[in-house]
Amino acid sequence: MRLEKRKSLLTKVSALVVMMIVVSTVVVGIFSYGFYRDETVKRNAEKAEAIAITVAAIVDGDSMEKALKTQKKDEQWDHIKETADETAIALDTRFLYLLSSEIVDGDVIYYVEGFNPAVSIEGEDEYGFLTHESASYYSDEFTITADNGIITHTEVYESGEFGLLISGHAPIFNSNEDVVGVVGVDIAMGAVMQNVAWFAVRISLIILLFTVVCAWISVVYIKRRVKKPVDDATEAASKLAVGDLDIEMKYEGNDEIGALGKAFMDIVQSTRRQIDVFKHISEGEFSVFIKERSDKDELAHVQQEMVEKLAQMLDTVVSSTNSLNASAGKMRSEALELVRREDVKVSIADDIVISADMIAKAIHENTEALSKTTQLIYEIEDKAAKGAEQITMMAEAVALVRRSFENLSTISDRITSISFQTNILALNAAVEAEHAGAFGRGFSVVADEVRNLAAKSSDSVKYADSIIDDALTKVEEGAKLSEKAVVAFEEIVAGIHASGELLTSANKAFERQNESVANINEDIEQMRDMIHRTANEVKESERMGERLSENAAKLAEVLKEYNY
Q1: 3-class SS at 92?
Q2: Where are the alpha helices (DSSP H) in 350-440?
Q3: Dihedral pair phi/psi, residue 181, rounded to 5°
């Protein structure tokens, strides 16, 4: 298609050049013909006037006037006749005649005719002395000269069988300065005008040939000077359009084509620099300096804004990760302390041999729900680990940390609930021990110790909740930033949604547990199993805190690769 358009344009240009050549040739031919014709007419008119003036100067007007009146030739007439004949032959005039200035009955009267046999028409006789001829054959200029004594000449005119003529007229004066006669000179212009026409044709042919040669030289010059650079620029533009920057335009010059080639290479170099900037960004180099090419360089503005926002986001993530790592360490320490305390509770609970079947079933349901939740969290953790080397998987790690804290918060709530239930059970046990009197004193001491442990456990859980809430706040800030950059976060959102449903089931199980606890006020044997469960959950919290610390460390290690 481009080739066809190029050919069409070349055809149009060629047609335009041909048209210009033809028009210019015609114009030059017409101009040359008109100019040369005017000059030729003017030159021959001046020649006719000069001949007429010369002949009139040698004529004695008084003698001519006398001869016309007496109608007799004199000595002057013979001299004038000889001079007129010689002049007509020598100057190649068509006619040379001396006429009376008076018009009688519409006729002019001949005084002398200079006869040139070479130009006479076959069978034509020479006009002699006193020959009459109709004045209508003569031009208005003749009448002006006869009446006013002014030298005149005519334009080229057609004179029937005599062809094209130019006539010049000069007056003959007597001693009183009266016009007594007129010298008329007719110069044949037929051959002259043909020469003028042929001159115009020759000039036109010369101009045409010169124009054709110039046009051919111009086409060759354009082909060598313009076509190749334009073809190179077209090929380079095609490569640039498909992202191929392997472009090298070697055309150099100070003209427009050179400027076009330089501008095109500037575009290529600018594109390469922009690619280098994106390479640095893709390699984690957010401290790269982006130089604006002009005040209207929107791409540089967008790149700089993107780098700044990514650097701010990573800075926030690093800060949140450090805070998360510190909080995870604290949580792990507190979890270890809780484990130690729960071990004490277990040792005490082992002394209590009262079974609690109903509470065991409820806690079993809770355990299954928690097991599924833990399994789902492990799956989310695996997804985050697989994408740890990519910045796009950073959100999964943050989501995993957030989910872990949510689970910790849930576990803390569960421990708080268990502590509360344990406290109620211990109180009920103390009441029952009072009712038992001396037989229940030992059991009362155990109940008091259990209640104290439950209170300490509740305080520890509250402290852990404050730490978890603080960490959750920071993790949420990191998650909001990462959600804008990570597309794969949708998988974790789905996993979290499933975890929410499982946690809802767990909550329902806890509701059933609460209903069961209301019915086990008289069965303290269930307290031992509950304490065992609490100890296991605290240990699980300690392990989750350890994994949280490991994930935070991995995330920090990934962020070290980015320079911002």
Answers
A1: coil
A2: 357-386, 394-436
A3: -165, 170
pLDDT by residue (tens digit) across 542-555? 777 778 777 777 77
Domain ranges of the chain: 2-199, 307-559
pTM of the model: 0.35
- The candidate with the shortest Cα–Cα distance to 523, out of 352, 348, 354, is 354
Mean pLDDT across the chain, nearest whole number? 75
Q: Residue 92: which residues within 8 A CB-CB, separation 6 or more?
A: 116, 118, 119, 187, 188
- Give the number of other Cβ atoms within 10 Å of residue 393's Cβ: 22
The pLDDT score that the predictor gives to residue 481 is: 75
**Rounded Cα gap, residues 443 and 504, in angstroms:** 37
Give the whole-angstrom CA distance, residue 6 versus residue 215.
Answer: 19
C-beta of residue 15 within 8 angstroms of C-beta of residue 206: no
Q: What is the pLDDT of residues 348-403, one digit of tens each?
A: 767 765 766 776 676 677 667 667 766 776 676 677 567 657 767 776 776 787 77
DSSP code string of 93-108: -SEEEEEES--BTTEE
Strand partners, 157: 165
Q: Measure the CA–CA gap between 198 and 204, rounded to whole angstroms.
A: 10
Note whether 67 and 109 are within 8 A (CB). Answer: no
Q: Is 92 left (phi over 0), alpha (psi -120 to 50) or beta?
A: left
Separation of alpha carbons 395 and 57, rounded Å:
123
Q: Which fold has domain 2-199?
A: Beta-Lactamase (3.30.450)
